[in-house]
Amino acid sequence: MARILVVDDEEPIRDLVKRLLCLHGHSVDTVIDGTEAVDQLQKKRYDLMIIDRFMPKMSGVDAVAMIRSSPKFQGS
Questions:
Q1: CA 61 from chain center: how many Å?
Q2: CA 30, 61, 32: angle at the middle one, nearest 5?
Q3: d(Cα 47, Cα 55) in Å, to the nearest integer?
Q4: Could you give the CA distance from residue 13 to residue 19 in angstroms, rounded to a whole number?
């Protein structure tokens, strides 16, 4: 079982992906944008993050760049 973070600004997409992953036994959390993804990753460790590229506040590309540059996540 993997712990997965799903990041998407569209609720129907988040819900669908979460349901499918949970059906396969994974533990899934969801957030609505890149800013929340960065905050959530400060609280919990995940095996996988599925992130939308285009979102308000912070895009998926910007969130991944911020996460990769953070010393907290080096070697993760």
A1: 12
A2: 25
A3: 22
A4: 10
